[in-house]
Amino acid sequence: MDTQRRTGEQGPVPFRSSRFFCVGSKWYFTTREGFDSGPFASRERAEVGLKRFLHVVRMLPEEQQVH
What we know:
DUF6316 domain-containing protein, DUF6316
C-alpha cells in the first residue's frame, strides 16, 4: 500500500493498492478509472507499459484527458 501523500491531499492518507496484478503468469496494470491493461510477460514490462500509458495521457489536450 502506498502511504505517501499526493499533491493537494489533506487529512488522512486514503487506502491505496498496487496498480499491478498477476493472473497466472501474466502481469497487468490498472488505472484509477478501472481500465486494465495487459497481459505483460513480467511486472517490469507492466511498469514500462504504465509509464507509456501515462506519457500518452499527459500529451492529450486537457478536455480529452481521462479523469
